[in-house]
């Protein structure tokens, strides 16, 4: 065997050994890494920014953008941004809610972080810089206009402790997992089990 042929065989063998087999690594098709996460005792809401920002630069803050996206029959203030009224077909409860902006009425419809901020903190966001945490807190892919009491009941729970009604549960599970993957966050074992148990019925 010539020296050149031997070198080619060595290179070929090295290439085949180095080729990933799909059993590990950060393949885009992989789900989030399972990890119990931190205890969250050092979490504070202000670590994710102060109030709503305008991430897409359209002049309206993220809260009003989500209200305008998720509500029907909306009316706007003269600024062209602030949602004054609208109708929400709530994804969490299946009920229809009339939204009216006001001190005593706005809480009927709240903006939920699908992956709660404190959950994100416990599962990797504690290592982010302030800019990334603010981006996460205002990312429309992680925001939903929902029934206020349902949002309060969910609080900072993962899917192992809280899930919406059956009509939206599959979409919720997909969205929760997609946000974790997008931001490289881990998932608690009980939440991974909950999502896995839903998977057969959501295909």
UniProtKB/TrEMBL annotation:
PANTHER family: AMP-DEPENDENT SYNTHETASE_LIGASE DOMAIN-CONTAINING PROTEIN-RELATED, SECRETED PROTEIN
InterPro entries tied to this protein: GmrSD_C
Name of this chain's protein: DUF1524 domain-containing protein
The organism's place on the tree of life at top rank: Bacteria
Domain GmrSD restriction endonucleases C-terminal: start-end pairs: 62-175
